[in-house]
Amino acid sequence: MHKISSTRAARFLEDVAFGKQALGGDIRTEKYKQPRPATLVPVAAGCAVLLLVYVSVYPIHGWRVALGADTPVYVWWTRISADLGLRASLLSPRPGTMAPLAALTSLLRQPSSALIASTTIVMAIALALATGTLLEEAFGRDSYAYFVTVVATGAFCFILIGGYVSTLAFGCLFVAGLAVTAHGLDAVDSAFPFLASGLLFGVAGSAHPIFGVLECVLIALAAVWLVRAPTPRIGGGPTRPATLVLGSVAGGAALTLALLAATGWITRTHVDTSADAILRRLEPQMLLHAFRTRLVGALISARFFLAVAAASCGALAWTNYREPRKTRTGGLGSRFGSAVIVVWLSVIAAGIVGLELGVRIPAQRLVNFALPLPLVTGAAVLAIRQSARRGWRQAAAPLGIVVAVASSYFAWHAWDRHRPSTPAVATVEAADTGRAFASTPSGTSLIVVTDSKDKPAQWAATVSNLLRQSVPPQRVAEVHVYLGRPANLIASRPTLTGHAVHDAVSTDLWRAVRATEPTALPVVLRALDPSSYASFAPRRGTRMIAPGVISPAGRTAFLTDRAFTSGPLWSSWLPVWLTPALLLGLAAVGWAWVRLALPRATARTAISLAPAFGLGTLAVAAIVLDAAGLRMSGIGKWVAVFAVIVGPLIALGLHRYRDAIGVGAA
Question: Which ranges in 270-389 belong to alpha helices (H)?
Answer without folding.
Answer: 275-282, 284-301, 303-322, 332-356, 363-368, 372-385
